[in-house]
Amino acid sequence: MAHALHDPVRHNAWATTHILEFCRGLDEQALSATVPGTYGTIIQTLRHIIYCEREDLDQLLGREPTDLWQSGSTAGLDVLSELAAQLSTDWEIFLAGDVDSERLLLPEEGTEPIPAGIVIAVVLYHGSDHRGQICTILSSLGHEPPDLTPWAYAFATGRIRA
């Protein structure tokens, strides 16, 4: 029996990979574009999504944090794609284990421990929100952004059929 989090986590990984693939067709000017109300440029936002997810997943896996922020401003789409692929693999490792959403994790800031289930929810929301911001920037540039909805994921991966 599959874990209840498989589809939400796999959708998150698929959507990040899908937006990265779409962005490969953009020039440097487009990757450096932003609009008011978004996190930053497209490339900055992609880095932010992946780096934050890496930190949170390391915490969920009980691993020493990977400090991607040190080289953060230089990672291009190839490196980000590799990091996204590793995240996808590591999520499968996490879901193959005993997922205890009530397990308390020590926060980076503050004093109160955070339930693992909240960290998972934050990762999924965070990625979706920022991918939506990238789609807003793409639309402002005249590009038709990719469909990153769970329905698109379900059709693309064969989870449902037309």
Description:
The longest helix is centred in the C-terminal third of the chain and has 25 residues. A two-stranded antiparallel sheet has the order 1-2. It is built from 6 helices and 2 strands, in the order ααααββαα. The chain has 162 residues and is mostly helical. 58% of the residues lie in helices and 2% in strands.
Spatial strand arrangement across the major sheet: 1-2
Percent of residues in beta strands: under 5%
Spans of at least 5 consecutive residues with low confidence: none
Structural class: mainly alpha
Helical amount: 55-70%
Termini Cα gap: 24 Å
Based on CA inertia axes, which overall geometry fits?
globular
Largest sheet entry: 2 strands, antiparallel
Mean pLDDT equals 94
Q: What is the rounded Rg?
A: 16 Å
Element pattern in H and E: HHHHEEHH
Q: Using DSSP, what is the number of strands? A: 2
| Total number of helices | 6
Annotation keywords:
58% helix, 6 helices, two-stranded antiparallel sheet, mainly alpha, 162 residues, globular, 2 strands
Brief rundown of the structure:
The chain is mainly alpha-helical and 162 residues long.
Task: Give the topology.
Blueprint: H1 6-23, H2 28-31, H3 42-61, H4 77-96, E1 104-105, E2 114-115, H5 116-140, H6 150-156
Antiparallel strand pairs: 1-2
Helix pairs in contact: 1-4, 1-5, 3-4, 3-5
